[in-house]
Design a protein that fits this description.
This protein is mainly alpha-helical and 217 residues long. 65% of the residues lie in helices and 0% in strands. α4 packs antiparallel against α9.
C-alpha cells in the first residue's frame, strides 16, 4: 500500500537525500562506494567498516557541510534574503570537496524545487526558481531542503535531526541485504551514532550571526 504524503518533516525527508534516493541503483549518480572513496575509506563490506563509514560521513560531510547549509538556507528564506541565498548557492559550487556529490545534489534539489512551483505567493521561492531556470543557481538539495522547512514553517532543529537520521539510515539500507541487516539492526546502529546528533546541531543553530559557513573535508 502506498504511503500517503503529508507535509511533515519526516515525510519530506523520504525523497530528499540524493544518496539515499540513488543508493543501490545502477543508474545512481552517487553510490556508497563513491562516497566511501571520496572519504578515502576502504569498501564497506562488514558491519565494522559500515560504522567507520557512517562516522566518517557524519563528521566530514553531514556536520561540517550539509547541516550548516540547511540551516543557513532556512535562515535566508525566513528573512526573505533571496540575493544571499543565491550567493550562498554559488559559493557552494566552488567547494572542491563537494564534487563527488554535486550532480546528484543538483538533480534532486532541482526536482524538489520544481515541485514547489505552484506556491505562487511565496516570493523568495519564486525568485529562487527563476534563478535556477536562468542558470544563476544550482538549487543544491540541502538549500532546497532548508528553504522547504521555512516555507512550511517546520522546526529547523527537528528538520536537521531528522535529515541526519534519514541520511544515515539510507546508507545502512543500501548495504542491509549484503550485510544481512534487519531494520531493527539498522535502528540499533543508528542509536550508536545518535548521541552526537543534538550536540552537532546546537553549534549550528548558535551561528545565527556567522557571516558564512566553513566546511572541512
Amino acid at each position: 500500500m502506498q504511503r500517503q504524503k503529508n507535509p511533515e518533516t519526516t515525510d519530506l525527508l523520504g525523497d530528499w537525500h540524493p544518496l539515499e534516493h540513488q543508493l543501490g541503483s545502477a543508474e545512481g549518480l552517487v553510490t556508497l562506494s563513491t562516497a566511501s572513496h571520496s572519504l578515502q575509506l576502504t569498501s564497506v563490506d562488514s558491519v565494522a567498516s559500515l560504522i567507520s563509514f557512517l562516522e566518517a560521513y557524519q563528521s566530514q560531510v553531514l556536520i561540517p557541510y550539509e547541516l550548516p547549509a540547511i540551516q543557513r538556507a532556512y535562515r535566508h528564506a525566513s528573512r526573505n534574503e533571496t540575493r544571499e541565498l543565491v550567493a550562498f548557492d554559488q559559493e557552494l559550487a566552488a567547494e572542491s570537496g563537494l564534487k563527488p556529490f554535486a550532480a546528484a545534489s543538483r538533480r534532486v534539489g532541482q526536482a524538489q524545487l520544481k515541485r514547489l512551483r505552484p506556491l505562487r505567493d511565496h516570493r523568495l521561492l519564486q525568485r529562487y526558481l527563476r534563478a535556477m531556470d536562468d542558470g544563476a543557481a544550482n538549487a543544491w538539495h540541502t538549500l532546497v531542503f532548508g528553504l522547504t522547512l521555512s516555507v512550511y514553517s517546520l522546526p529547523v532543529l527537528q528538520g536537521l535531526t531528522s535529515y541526519e537520521k534519514q541520511t544515515l539510515l539510507g546508507f545502512m539500507h543500501a548495504v542491509s541485504r549484503t550485510l544481512r541487516l534487519s531494520e531493527n539492526d539498522c535502528r540499533n546502529l543508528l542509536e550508536q551514532l545518535s548521541p552526537s546528533l543534538p550536540n552537532a546541531t546546537e553549534p549550528i543553530l548558535g551561528e545565527e550571526h556567522s557571516p558564512r559557513c566553513h566546511f572541512s573535508f
